[in-house]
Design goal:
By secondary structure, the protein is mainly α. The protein has two domains: about 400 residues, no CATH class; about 70 residues, no CATH class. It has 19 helices and no strands. The longest helix is centred in the first third of the chain and has 53 residues.
Length: about 475
């Protein structure tokens, strides 16, 4: 197979991530006003529980499948066998998960109507084969699919969700868009695989290595989903879940700009590692670290500088508590960006999942303990603090575990330019915001001026990432 361009795949993936940011900027203010904080909390709570059943039903097969396809992407016979083996296993395990979900939540109890709708979300994940195309580095197909589905779902939200009684319609739009999107990828599959004799399939051989990737995913979910469940369980006011969900949503949307590179680099590093080219692997790592630092620092400082003006404009009345939550959670943009490079881009492709597993188990344990301590008295603020502490522990653990393989000190050497530029940018943004009273106008001016100041400073410092990007653009223009 022809090797795909990392830059092109990153642009494809980033373009989708940008759309994923723009769409919530359009829908979230509308939904927060129409549905209200309590309904948003119910939506977040029930979807979080469903996510657990999808997680356990998938057994880590998506990330595992992406990596395994990347190892054999040049052999159509091998990738065909692996595709069928992993897909059949996903069908079986997710069907079992669906049955347990149905008998546990759909027959009686609170929110049964919503849980019945969310059955389609489990089915949608069972037929998802995006992991296969990502393993082949065919990101264009998954991106185009995702973009079309997102746009259709936005239209449906504004057409059908009109009042606080339309929460069930919002659920239906969400699950049907996922189902339609995952189903659409099947029209391309015949081009990339051959028919296989069922006797050639050895499904059982994938269980052990798949479980090795499944364990860290469980641990990761503990501090990405369980916090919302713990808030909803410990705190009587379900609005607290809504506040936390909205703050997390904004931070994670910003975070995807940096971490979207990890989705592209995992199959590339896996394929390079399979060829035995360790020097090239380290070269990819250094470039990833530099890029992540360049993006993550200004994103964190930027959202802190506009948080208290952004929240009332974006969410409307009743969401004031989201602003301090944004400021508290924002450091995870940097922390997850770093652990994305060390974990997703390095430890997993190079078959060091034991180290990856250890780091996320430590993070999950710390998150659970601090959630238990803080949520009772601090509610969503406590969960936010616990999340930052957990992500810090994951990043530090991974740095310690790979210190003999990767020069960690180099990461800090390349970061000083981005730290200095971000601090200066932050100071200017705060000053500008102080003198402009109109929130909307202030946010626009702060954002534009911050971007200009930040990149101007990097140009003055002759940053390698910036100049490499300019050179790449010039080469493409010449072609």
């Amino acid at each position: 197979m022809e090797q795909k361009s990392v830059a092109r795949n990153y642009i494809y993936n980033l373009s989708y991530q940008i759309l994923a940011i723009i769409i919530p900027l359009i829908t979230t203010p509308y939904l927060s006003r129409v549905l209200g904080a309590e309904n948003i909390g119910i939506y977040s709570y029930t979807l979080s529980i469903t996510t657990y059943f999808i997680l356990f039903g998938s057994l880590g097969s998506a990330m595992y499948g992406q990596r395994e396809i990347a190892y054999v992407q040049k052999s159509i016979k091998k990738r065909s066998i692996i595709f069928y083996e992993i897909f059949i296993m996903r069908l079986i395990t997710l069907f079992i998960s669906l049955l347990i979900f149905y008998f546990t939540f759909c027959l009686n109890g609170q929110y049964t109507t919503y849980y019945k709708i969310l059955i389609l979300e489990i089915i949608a994940n069972a037929i998802d084969i995006s992991w296969f195309f990502q393993g082949l580095e065919e990101f264009k197909k998954t991106v185009v699919r995702n973009m079309l589905v997102k746009l259709i779902s936005v239209i449906c939200i504004f057409v059908f969700v009109k009042t606080s009684n339309d929460l069930n319609k919002y659920f239906i739009i969400y699950v049907l868009s996922t189902l339609l999107g995952n189903f659409s990828l099947w029209m391309y599959i015949s081009k990339y695989i051959n028919k296989i004799d069922l006797k050639e399939l050895k499904i059982i051989r994938h269980i052990k290595p798949m479980m090795m990737l499944f364990i860290p995913q469980i641990a990761t979910q503990i501090y990405t989903v369980l916090d919302k469940i713990m808030i909803g369980t410990i705190v009587s006011d379900k609005s607290e879940v809504g506040y936390y969900e909205q703050a997390q949503k904004i931070i994670k949307l910003l975070m995807t700009i940096a971490t979207s590179l990890g989705t592209v680099m995992l199959p590339r590093i896996a394929a390079t590692y399979a060829e035995g080219n360790n020097k090239k692997v380290k070269e990819y790592m250094n470039k990833s670290f530099a890029f992540i630092m360049m993006i993550a620092f200004p994103l964190m400082m930027g959202i802190i500088s506009v948080a208290y003006k952004f929240v009332p404009v974006f969410y409307g009345d009743g969401y004031d508590k989201v602003a301090p939550l944004l400021c508290i959670i924002s450091p995870i943009i940097i922390l997850i960006g770093l652990s994305n490079v060390t974990g997703t881009q390095y430890l997993l492709p190079t078959k060091q999942q034991n180290k990856y597993t250890l780091s996320v188990i430590i993070g999950a344990f710390i998150n659970f303990i601090f959630n238990f301590i803080f949520i009772k008295n601090l509610a969503s603020i406590g969960a936010s603090i616990a999340t930052v502490i957990a992500e810090l522990s994951v990043t530090l653990t991974q740095f310690i575990l790979i210190r003999k393989e990767i020069e960690i000190k180099d990461v800090f050497k390349i970061s000083y330019k981005y730290i200095i530029s971000s601090i200066i940018m932050f100071a200017f943004s705060i000053i500008i915001g102080y003198f402009i009273s109109n929130n909307i106008f202030s946010i626009i001016v702060q954002a534009i001026s911050s971007i200009c100041i930040y990149f101007a400073l990097l140009l003055l410092m002759k940053d390698d990432v910036i100049f490499d990007g300019i050179s790449m653009i010039k080469e493409r223009v010449r072609k």
